[in-house]
Every structure is written in structure tokens, then in C-alpha cells.
Design a protein that fits this description.
single chain, 650 residues, mainly alpha, 3 domains, 28 helices, 0% strand
Length: 650
């Protein structure tokens, strides 16, 4: 069968992007030192067992990395190749999913390219972190899920569930895929007046089998790691008390946790809106007449997005104040701002003038309505696929919006009171909180359950339902896992947001000039930032590791801009010390075990080195040029200082 041009173009783009990121570097990144060591231990022992620092389920990625290491030899470079290969299949699956949604080839190529070159995501392709392998399997699961819904195929449903559970064996979030598809077919059975027993069974079998097998291996085989105890299980015990308090009086005690959960979800949703901002800017601007006719629609969509945005900033202002130069403003404003790539842009101007930073801040503020509009349209138009709202005569007739307004007012009042130290926790407030949420739930049920259509509008409704369920369930897991606000936790949500956007704006025309300009800009910024970060850290790691292995320096004497360096060398030395300190209870072992190694106390008689290049005879200008001219002065300066120290030591 002849390959369509769009797919061929995506394969070409992916290949070019990977080639431009070369050369591969022998470098760790953040937590992947534990994943690296897990593959190493498996190759040496043949026993499938996670390293003590591993937090996600990971075992499938461990086997995948071991397969490539068996074929190509064990190294960080080999592990990076394993991720690159897997993500290739994920990107192809994402493109084909867009085409199955009847999105044009042009839009499918643009949307897929946008996902590929998002800077943080592309950077993680060149690591052995779990984010990209999990995302790749999720994308394959989504494709089979769409085929299952479109073709009414139980075989595709089985494959979708299986790939979702394969993703679960890398990160637990993968379990949302079979759950979401199962719910879709339950609802489909209701509307079609036909019980899809084979489909539901095909989804349940791989999900239950893999889930049971994994937890048997985990619990009965005593394979829970210290990292999983510390970051997951201990935290879930606390979360359970928040979600299911033993007594109504305890609810007031956990009030701030509830607000934190709500705040976290609002932030994640807003981040999803911002990732879509470049796509919104590619659309043709509607005529003034069209805008006038859509005043009510625009008000409703802007309201939905504005409530989310307001809740975020109320929390940020409460926690960190109004100072423009405060560290949290520097982080969150470009992040939420919402230039979807503002965080990367800030990295470019952070070393320059205050004026440029202020310009970026105000540019971020200026783009807020676009992101809010994108998110509001997605939510509202998806809502219309399922529910008839014939009686909306004005803004306040929509119960959903009234409920959202009450939520916003309640949270604002509590946050404002807390900000001015007027709030005092009590059982009375806790009871009021329960009543409040009961009212919100009743409004939700009345709006969404008792006013549904006799039959869903189209297949798009089922597709959107599948995507929204997957997104919402993962948001819930992110909320209770206390994952922080880092971009990597959002990677699995980005394609879901883009797919919903693609359905909603499928018929919207693109502006050819802006589409070309924005796409090229995204590619240049994303590729340049990801390559610069990978090459600079990789170069420093390789040079420093060479000198450590020669015995010229100790790892603790080298400072590299990646968290993985110290635990890569010292985690296992510190683990027994930390374990003994905790009375042999591995459930309490903190992951920063290397801080317990006595020899790591700072030796002030020796300089702390920035980037390691120890032998001047092996230095070449090519080593500098291959990284980036942006870093040339800094690297040359550090090289001279470092080598001067080594010559003195000799």
C-alpha cells in the first residue's frame, strides 16, 4: 500500500530532528541514574528487580533498555537510542490518530510536529527517563482505541488495553487508558441499545491480567523499592486521609490540602491550554460579523478559562506576593503566562537585561486571552457534543457556569481570608465544605446526567469522551501524587489536549503565512534549546567522567548542571548508611542517600570545579564548536581555570 505524503513527511521530519540532535552523549539526566543502574543490574544478574532509587513501575522499560544493551552494548547512549526508537512509533501513531479523526494531512503534520519539537519533550527523548517511553505507548494505545470505537472492533479494543497496560508497566498513569476505553464502551452500549460484551471483555482481560501480575511481582515478590515507598506509598496513605477523612472534624484540618489539590488541577489544565497557544495563533481570524454573532459563546468560553486563571494567581499571590522579581514570578509567569514556550524563552533572556525580562512578562500577560479562549472553546464545544442546552437565553442560565462561579467565589473568599489571616479552621467550616461540594455535585449531575441526548451527535463525541476521560483521570492521579509543577509530568496530557483541539477546530481554516512562520519558529526554538541543553551537559559529563575514571579527580569535585551526577556515583555508597540510620526500614529511606557519605563533606582546601576538562593536550576547538557558540566563552573560561588547577596539582 502506498504511504501517504503526510506520513512520509513526518518520518522525514523526525529523522532530521534526531540527526540534528547528534552526537549522542554518555550522560545521565535527573532520576535516570536509577533506571541506568537497574538495566545494568539486570544484565549482570538476569533477575528482574528494580533499583532501590526507582519510583515508577518501570519494569517494561528496563527490559526494553536491556534488549538494546544486549544488541549494542550497555551505555547511556544505547539507552537513549532505545527511547528514540520507541518514540518514533509513538509519533507515527499520533499522526495516524489525527488522520483517523478526519483531520487534514496539513493539520496532522503541523500538530504532530508541534508535539515533537516542544523543547522539554524533545529534550527528554535524549534521556532514559520514563516520560517518553510511557508517552509513546500511550499514543499507540490511543490509536487502537480510536480504531476500536470507529470499527466497533473488539480486537482493536484488546490491543488498546494491552498497550495502555504496557504503559502502566513504565508509569502507573498508563492504567487510565483501558479504564477510559471501558467507560466509553459502557456508554456506547447504553446509547446504541446493544451490549458490547466482547469489547468490554477484551478491554478487561489484559488490564486485569497485567495489573494482577505486576502487583503479585511487586507485593508477593517483595519488590517495592525505597523510592516507591518514600514517594508513592507513604504519600498515598496521607492522601487517603485527605480524601476519606475518618471524622468530619478532620476535614477542616485538611482544608489547605484540598485547596492545594484544586489549585494543582487548575494549573495543569491551564498549562494544557498554553501548549495549544501556537496552534490557536495559526487559525484565521474570524470576521467582525462572526464575532458579533458569537458574543454569548465567547463570554462563556472566556469565563471558563478566566476562572481557572484567577484561581492560580490568587494562590500564587497568597504564597509569594506581588514582587515581579521574586523567584516564583520568574518561574510561573512565563510558564502560565501563557506563552506555551515562555519558560524556554525566559532561559534565553535570563542572562540579559531587566528590560527584556519585563517585556517577556508583559508579552505573556498579553497572550492570556488567546490561551483562555482555546481552553474555553475546547471545553464548551466538547460539552455541546453530549448535551442539549436549548434554554440558554443569557449568560447565567447555564447551571455549569453558575456552579463554576460558586466554586470560584468560595475559593476566592477562603484564600482571601487566609491571606489576611482571618480564616480559623473549625468543624463548622468543614461541615460547610461538605455541603458546598454536595451542592456542586448535584448541579453537575443535573446538568450532565438528566439532560443528555437520546443519542450522541457523532463518532466525534465518543472520540472526545475517550480523550477527556484519559485526560481527567491522569489529572486526578497527578493531583494526588503531589508531582510538582514540572513540565515532564504533563507530557502524557499534551497529545490528548491537541487531539481534542483537532476535533473542535477541524473545519477552522489556517492562515498559510502565520502557519508556516509559527511552525518554523517552533522547530527552531525547540530544536535549538533541546540540543543546547543535551550537548552542553553531555560534553561536561563525558569529559568529567573520563578524568574521574583516570583517577585525576573525584566526582564530588565536579559541578555539572544535571541532578543525576552525584547520585550516579554515590547513591549506592550512601544507601546502606541511610538504611541503617532509619533502623533498617527501607520505607523511610530518603532518595538523597549520597548526602550521608562522610567523604562527600566539602573539602575547602580543594577548589569546586565547574566543568571537567582535565588534559589540555586532548583539548580541541571542535569540542567547543560542536556544543554551541552561545556557551563558548563560558566553557573556555572554565576550561582554563580547571586546567590551571590540574597543572598546579601535578
Amino acid at each position: 500500500m502506498k504511504m501517504e505524503k503526510g506520513l512520509l513527511l513526518i518520518i522525514t521530519i523526525y529523522t532530521i530532528v534526531i540527526l540534528l540532535m547528534l552526537p549522542l552523549r554518555e550522560v545521565g539526566y535527573h532520576m535516570d541514574f536509577g533506571y541506568h543502574h537497574a538495566v545494568r543490574d539486570f544484565l549482570q544478574s538476569g533477575i528482574l528487580k528494580n533499583h532501590t532509587a526507582v519510583v515508577p513501575s518501570f519494569i517494561l522499560q528496563e527490559l526494553w533498555g536491556a534488549l538494546f544493551s544486549y544488541l549494542l552494548g550497555f551505555s547511556y547512549k544505547t539507552l537513549h537510542i532505545s527511547v528514540i526508537v520507541l518514540f518514533f512509533f509513538g509519533i507515527i501513531a499520533f499522526y495516524k490518530t489525527l488522520r483517523e479523526l478526519n483531520v487534514s494531512q496539513t493539520k496532522s503534520v503541523i500538530f504532530t510536529t508541534t508535539l515533537l519539537v516542544f523543547p522539554h519533550l524533545l529534550r527528554f527523548v535524549f534521556t532514559f527517563m520514563t516520560n517518553i517511553p510511557h508517552l509513546s505507548l500511550e499514543l499507540i494505545s490511543l490509536l487502537f482505541g480510536i480504531w476500536a470505537i470507529k470499527r466497533n472492533s473488539w480486537r482493536d479494543a484488546f490491543c488498546s488495553s494491552a498497550f495502555g497496560m504496557f504503559a502502566f508497566l513504565i508509569r502507573n498513569f498508563g492504567i487510565v487508558m483501558p479504564i477510559s476505553l471501558f467507560i466509553v464502551f459502557v456508554i456506547k452500549s447504553y446509547y446504541d441499545r446493544k451490549f458490547y460484551f466482547k469489547h468490554l471483555l477484551a478491554i478487561a482481560i489484559p488490564a486485569l491480567f497485567i495489573f494482577s501480575a505486576y502487583y503479585y511481582w511487586l507485593i508477593v515478590g517483595d519488590n517495592i523499592t525505597s523510592g516507591q515507598y518514600y514517594y508513592v506509598y507513604n504519600h498515598l496513605v496521607e492522601t487517603k486521609r485527605h480524601l476519606f477523612p475518618p471524622n468530619i472534624k478532620y476535614v477542616a484540618t485538611y482544608y489547605h490540602s484540598y485547596i492545594g489539590y484544586y489549585y494543582r488541577v487548575c494549573l495543569f489544565v491551564l498549562l494544557l491550554f498554553t501548549i495549544l497557544l501556537p496552534l490557536v495563533m495559526m487559525l484565521k481570524v474570524p470576521s467582525l460579523e462572526t464575532i458579533k454573532k458569537s458574543k454569548g459563546f465567547l463570554l462563556r468560553t472566556l469565563f471558563i478559562g478566566s476562572v481557572l486563571f484567577a484561581l492560580i494567581y490568587i494562590k500564587i499571590i497568597q504564597d509569594h506576593g506581588w514582587r515581579l522579581e521574586g523567584v516564583y514570578w520568574r518561574i510561573y509567569l512565563p510558564l502560565i503566562g501563557p506563552l506555551s514556550w515562555g519558560h524556554v524563552l525566559y532561559r534565553y533572556v535570563s542572562g540579559n537585561s531587566y528590560f527584556l525580562r519585563v517585556i517577556l512578562y508583559f508579552l505573556s500577560y498579553a497572550t492570556i486571552p488567546l490561551a483562555i479562549f482555546a481552553g474555553g472553546v475546547m471545553i464548551y464545544k466538547s460539552h455541546l457534543m453530549f448535551f442539549e442546552l436549548k434554554k440558554i437565553k443569557n449568560f447565567f442560565n447555564n447551571k455549569l457556569l453558575i456552579g463554576a462561579l460558586v466554586v470560584a467565589g468560595f475559593i476566592f473568599q477562603k484564600q482571601l481570608a487566609a491571606y489576611f489571616f482571618l480564616y480559623h479552621e473549625s468543624a463548622h467550616d468543614a461541615f460547610g465544605l461538605w455541603v458546598f461540594w454536595a451542592i456542586v455535585l448535584a448541579v453537575f449531575i443535573h446538568t450532565f446526567v438528566f439532560r443528555h441526548r437520546e443519542k450522541l451527535v457523532s463518532l466525534d463525541a465518543y472520540f472526545s469522551l475517550f480523550f477527556w476521560l484519559s485526560l481527567i483521570f491522569q489529572l486526578f492521579m497527578l493531583m494526588i501524587y503531589d508531582t510538582g509543577l514540572d513540565f515532564e509530568y504533563m507530557f502524557a496530557l499534551f497529545p490528548l489536549a491537541i487531539l481534542i483541539f483537532a476535533i473542535v477546530f477541524r473545519e477552522a481554516p489556517l492562515s498559510p503565512f502565520r502557519t508556516l512562520a509559527i511552525t518554523l519558529t517552533l522547530v527552531l526554538i525547540g530544536l535549538h534549546w533541546a540540543r543546547k541543553d543535551y550537548q552542553s551537559i553531555g560534553w561536561a559529563w563525558e569529559r568529567s567522567a573520563q578524568q574521574v575514571n583516570r583517577g585525576l579527580i573525584e566526582p564530588r569535585q565536579v559541578g555539572i548542571n544535571t541532578w543525576a551526577w552525584m547520585p550516579y556515583w554515590y547513591y549506592e555508597a550512601g544507601y546502606p548508611i541511610e538504611l541503617a540510620k532509619q533502623g533498617g526500614d527501607r520505607r523511610k529511606v530518603y532518595i538523597h542517600t549520597w548526602t550521608e557519605v562522610p567523604s562527600l563533606e566539602q573539602d575547602h582546601t580543594k577548589p569546586y570545579l565547574g566543568i571537567g576538562e582535565c588534559n589540555t593536550l586532548e583539548w580541541s576547538e571542535r569540542d567547543i564548536k560542536i556544543i554551541d557558540r552561545f556557551y563558548e566563552r563560558q566553557l573556555l573560561f572554565i576550561k582554563k581555570e580547571f586546567c590551571a588547577y590540574l597543572w598546579q596539582a601535578k
